[in-house]
Amino acid sequence: MRILIVEDEPLIARFVARGLRSEGYTVAIATDGEGAVERLAGGSWDLVILDLLLPGCDGFEVLREISGRRLDVPVLVLSARREVDARVRALDAGASDFLAKPFALDELLARVRVQLRRPVTVAEEVADPAPAGFELDAPNHELVMRDGGRRMLSDREFAVLEYLSRTPNELVSRQRLLNAVWGYQFDPRSNVVDVYVGRLRRKLEPGVRIETVRGGGYRLIPG
Length: 223
Prior knowledge:
Helix content: 25-40%
Order of helices and strands: EHEHEHEHEHEEEHEHHEE
Radius of gyration: 18 Å
Structural class: alpha/beta
Distance between the termini: 43 Å
């Protein structure tokens, strides 16, 4: 497994790299955002560990580049920014997980192991949840509207909507979504599912709703 660490603090970068190598991972370090984007575009990576506060091109810009170039790589943000807004912005920009500094190496390694388990595999062709009133273009990760308009979805957005569209009008628990899309027992205190459902609501056409059932989960209501 090849992991790219994007961190401008040498002590932290070396500490993380040493811990990862002790677990058998192949590790490289980029000290700024521009270097990270070049490395990501020029090779195959299994995971990126990304700081947000970088010189020049910051971590949010790196996330936008990863999304814009459709690079299929999970990103674990490791940042001193602890506020909720930073976490939400990072997840909205495409991060897979967020760990605040200071951190315990054991927890970081556990989260790395989790991220290296791939999310659910969606259909290779255009999914056809006709009852939901829209289509999902799997090869391009796009939401196809009734009028033919298209909206780009991130990997996780696509997987969440694809899962919900299998059973329109039926309740799907948060835990089922976490297990299906993230592939592991996620921290129940995390609001990651709520974040992605919120993003999807802004992209769905009028009439199609994702209903939140307090204490239960989510229900896709076709238009």
